[in-house]
């Protein structure tokens, strides 16, 4: 393993090519949760026999400091056909499928510089390893912000957010990560540096590779820089919380979707999540309004009136109380005292969201898109998961496992994909990574 690390020291320096034996135990554990040596033994959707619970660790972790160093590292891996697991800080490394036979982990965590912030043009260009929280602090100094709401805001890197399409509930007003990307620089599997898009909002040059790379989980290339559009910060913000009977909550969500109200965030919450936040009983609806003071006050009061008419408990949160509410909500979704818990990303018809939430332990679903996160913690969690997966698929949706113990991911089809584009995805993978050295096995169908 030291021999493998030494192959990269001439590129990144000794301190940036770390042998596996020298990696902190906590980091080793995180990486091993993403790796498996097992080969699929059963059709998709079926339980699979567990074969190997002790994956072979990679030889080293490499930390390039520049895009040029990153390109040289990938070139070296490609030349030797070493399999690479790209990551940022590793906060989402265990999302998606298990990667097979990894030789090298390449982290962009030290590619963390601000390249350009065009304040007047409302754009920002950064390296992929910059922390989301750090970028937001820098943008806030100019009265601006990046309109995504990832679950792990303190540790998530911008490259990781793009690679996993971790948008959050701000999609209600601003769309998804791919909608806000203007340009991207990445290193191909053969080590060549490539670019798409640009640094201005109105840019139509080249192929729209931003959409292709968003949510690709590091299987097509290693992102090194991105350009985002950003937005002015709002004058004031308030959040309305409605809790109570599931049927009434469903009706209130329907009214909100069909109204002229313009929340920036709007989500449905499961019963356990509502009680865990101390918001009341039953299911919940949280809607955040951000604009000028008069608009926010008027919209908040209108939604409260809707809740009153349906017999729901309504509360308005503002200032520090509102900030704490959204922070604790993210923490509740992301954390679990149960190490065997399974976290999933789901998508359903928005009108079926309440039906799904009534069968889940912990979960939230965006009222407009029907996308959300569920966590299963009960003893019969696999049966429960498969039941909700069937329910989602029956409602034109999906259920994908993000985080789960390795043995669970070895038993289940992580992605649960039932569409007809798998062959197309395989051809795209072959075009970008013919030798299949980048995150092998992590994407749909073991791509």
Automatic annotation (TrEMBL):
It comes from the Bacteria. Keywords: FAD, Flavoprotein. The keyword Iron does not apply. Residues 54-233 form the FAD-binding PCMH-type domain. Pfam families: FAD_binding_4. The keyword Flavoprotein applies. InterPro entries: FAD-bd_PCMH (IPR016166), FAD-bd_PCMH-like_sf (IPR036318), FAD-bd_PCMH_sub2 (IPR016169), FAD-linked_Oxase-like_C (IPR016164), Oxid_FAD_bind_N (IPR006094). Gene3D superfamilies: 3.30.465.10. PANTHER family: D-LACTATE DEHYDROGENASE, GLYCOLATE OXIDASE SUBUNIT GLCE. This is FAD-binding oxidoreductase. It comes from Brasilonema octagenarum UFV-OR1.
């Amino acid at each position: 393993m030291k021999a493998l690390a030494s192959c990269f020291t001439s590129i990144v320096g000794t301190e940036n090519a770390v042998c596996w034996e020298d990696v902190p135990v906590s980091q080793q554990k995180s990486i091993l949760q993403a790796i498996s040596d097992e080969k699929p033994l059963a059709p998709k959707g079926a339980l699979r026999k567990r074969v190997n619970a002790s994956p072979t660790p990679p030889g080293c972790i490499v930390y390039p400091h520049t895009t040029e160093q990153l390109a040289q590292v990938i070139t070296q891996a490609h030349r030797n056909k070493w399999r690479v697991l790209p990551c940022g800080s590793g906060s989402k490394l265990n999302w998606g499928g298990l990667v097979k036979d990894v030789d090298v982990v390449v982290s962009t965590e030290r590619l963390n510089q601000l390249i350009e912030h065009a304040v007047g043009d409302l754009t920002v260009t950064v390296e992929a390893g910059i922390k989301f929280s750090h970028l937001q602090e820098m943008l806030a100094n100019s009265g601006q912000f990046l309109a995504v709401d990832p679950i792990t805001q303190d540790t998530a890197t911008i490259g990781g957010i793009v690679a996993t399409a971790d948008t959050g509930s701000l999609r209600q007003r601003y769309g998804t990560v791919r909608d806000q990307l203007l340009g991207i620089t990445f290193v191909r599997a053969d080590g060549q540096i490539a670019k798409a898009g640009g640094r201005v909002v109105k840019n139509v040059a080249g192929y729209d590779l931003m959409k292709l790379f968003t949510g690709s989980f590091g299987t097509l290339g290693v992102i090194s820089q991105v350009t985002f559009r950003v937005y002015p910060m709002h004058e004031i913000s308030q959040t309305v919380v409605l809790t109570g009977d599931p049927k009434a909550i469903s009706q209130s969500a329907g009214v909100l979707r069909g109204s002229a109200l313009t929340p920036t965030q709007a989500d449905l919450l499961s019963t356990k999540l509502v009680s865990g936040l101390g918001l009341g009983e039953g299911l919940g609806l949280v809607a955040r309004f951000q604009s000028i003071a008069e608009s926010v006050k008027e919209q908040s009061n209108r939604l409260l009136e809707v809740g009153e008419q349906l017999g729901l408990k309504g509360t308005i949160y503002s200032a520090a109380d509102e900030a704490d509410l959204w922070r604790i909500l993210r923490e509740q979704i992301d954390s679990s005292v149960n190490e065997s818990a399974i976290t999933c990303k789901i998508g359903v018809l928005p009108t079926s969201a309440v039906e799904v939430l009534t069968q889940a332990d912990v979960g939230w679903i965006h009222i407009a898109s029907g996308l959300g996160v569920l966590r299963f913690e009960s003893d019969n969690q696999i049966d429960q998961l498969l039941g909700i997966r069937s329910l989602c698929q029956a409602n034109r949706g999906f259920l994908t496992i993000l985080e789960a113990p390795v043995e669970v991911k070895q038993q289940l089809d992580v992605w649960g994909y039932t569409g007809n584009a798998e062959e197309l995805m395989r051809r795209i993978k072959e075009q970008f990574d013919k030798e299949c050295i980048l995150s092998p096995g992590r994407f749909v169908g073991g791509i």
